[in-house]
Amino acid sequence: MRSHAKRLPSRPVILLLQLAVLIAFFLIWHVLTDTKILSPFFFGTPGAVLARTWADFASGVIWYHLGITLLETALAFVIGTVAGIAFGFWFARAPLVSVVFDPYIKAVNALPRVVLAPIFALWLGLGIWSKVALGVTLVFFIVFFNVYQGVKEVSPVVLANARMLGASSRDLFRHVYLPSALSWVFSSLHTAVGFAMVGAVVGEYLGSAAGLGYRIHQAEGVFDTVGVFSGMLVLTIFVVLIDAAVTMIEKRLLHWRPQDTGAGQH
Amino acid sequence: MAEAAAAAPALQLEGVTCTFPSPDGRGRSYTAVQGASFTVADGEFVSIVGPTGSGKSTMLNVAAGLLKPSEGRALSFGQPVTGINPKAGYMFQAEALMPWKSALDNVAAGLEFRGVSKAEARERALPWLSRVGLEGFGNRFPHQLSGGMRKRVALAQTLIVDPKIILMDEPFSALDVQTRQMMENELLDLWAADRKSVVFITHDLEEAIAMSDRVLVLSAGPGSRLIGEYRIGLDRPRDVAEIRMTPQFLALHQEIWAQLRDEVLKGYAQTKLR
């Protein structure tokens, strides 16, 4: 509910303003480094960063690394989500299990996951699986808590109604619990995808032979600031693209929900 | 066997008492209904009126098999109700539609639960949508429908599985007066078509008299008992708005209200005490 006193301008105007912010950022960066107020060695120059990014895409070097990172992200997301849904359901339907494990779940979730990266590298090697594992530990808990909540918050009246209509416990799962839980999962989809990518990149950064995190780490090793910024730029572009895709999927799958409540959940 | 089932009443409550433990786990437990016994004949429309907090919904939940009584038992067509009563349809007071299903899929749900394929269930749900006046609204989701429309969907959803007895818990209480009278007339028309048994719960005495064959009066809670039974001999078919003007209606209203009034006052005093 927006107040009528502060009405926002139309969408194209907002887009134009957003574009203006982007251009202003690059302009200020350019002016500061061009006038040597900021050293181009430490801060790069926008021209060089864009040229490097363009060259990487043109030569095709970046695609391989990008593909690795996206693969790790996708795997972490899928495995984390499936495990989160399964455990969320189990815990919500078995109160004893949830009561007993509650402190341990909280303890593990409080652990900063970055410290696990070296352990995973030790266990799973420097390939993609140590990064996937790191991403899974991040995604799992978001999905888990949301599914748990979603199952717990099913309206008792809707449930009783379905039972009166003859729903078996399998029907209840498919037609009542799952849709309710999924609506909670989708409302956290943006966060989950973002975390899957964080897991992949951080994992690569700490030890690997491929991926965007690896490229950024390599560039840092030789004080190649332009390379670092170029890697960050590519990462940003793809996070924005994935986020847009998630928004589209969300709109398709949650079209039964009133529009007003969809906002402000993530 | 078939004759026995035909002779047995659609619903029979025998000395049903429902006691709930107090919310904090200690102290006195709360008795909602005390020793309720009544029968509903096959094809009969019975209303139960009573002040708020008189355990009307509790009795209905026992009849539906959603709640196990502390004492006594419920029988439906001669069969003791243990677990969900398969012969009963239930229309709830609160919103009970699945918000993630379209109107059509909500109506079709009961058939799907009975093993009918999705395509066939939808096909059979379509005429039900038009029967409750919602032709062309099948693709809408519950939040895109008005309160009255949602109640129509719920009605079609309940009736499509052909329950032998329909339990209705103040189904129209959330609607405005005009919509409500329209829905009441539609319900009577649908009921007249195949004469199922109906147990209709309401706190509105006029609604109860206008629709029923018989009105039961519950005393104020806690420990509500059935204290009155009135046969409504008004001619059918009825129009719920017009019948309220007839002298017979007014006489019945006066008679039942004389008894109900005291209970309502008692119930009101209770809520003030709490």
**Fourth-level CATH superfamily of chain A:** MetI-like
- What distance separates the N and C termini of chain A? 16 Å
Structural class assignment of chain A: mainly alpha
SSE series of chain A: HHHHHHHHHHHHH
Q: What is the helix/strand order of chain B?
A: HEEEHEEEHHHEHEHEEHH
Q: Report strand order across the widest sheet of chain B.
A: 6-7-8-3-9-10
Strand-helix topology:
The complex is a heterodimer of chains A (about 270) and B (about 270).
Chain A lengths: L10 H24 L5 H4 L2 H14 L1 H33 L1 H16 L5 H9 L3 H25 L3 H9 L4 H19 L1 H18 L5 H10 L3 H29 L5 H4 L4
Helix pairs in contact in A: 3-12, 4-5, 4-7, 4-10, 4-11, 6-7, 7-9, 7-10, 10-11, 10-12, 11-12
Chain B lengths: L1 H6 L3 E10 L9 E11 L4 E5 L6 H9 L6 E6 L2 E2 L7 E4 L11 H11 L4 H14 L15 H13 L5 E5 L7 H18 L2 E6 L2 H7 L2 E5 L7 E6 L8 H4 L3 H27 L1
Parallel strand pairs in B: 3-8, 3-9, 6-7, 7-8
Antiparallel strand pairs in B: 1-2, 1-4, 4-5, 9-10
Helix pairs in contact in B: 3-4, 3-5, 4-5, 7-9
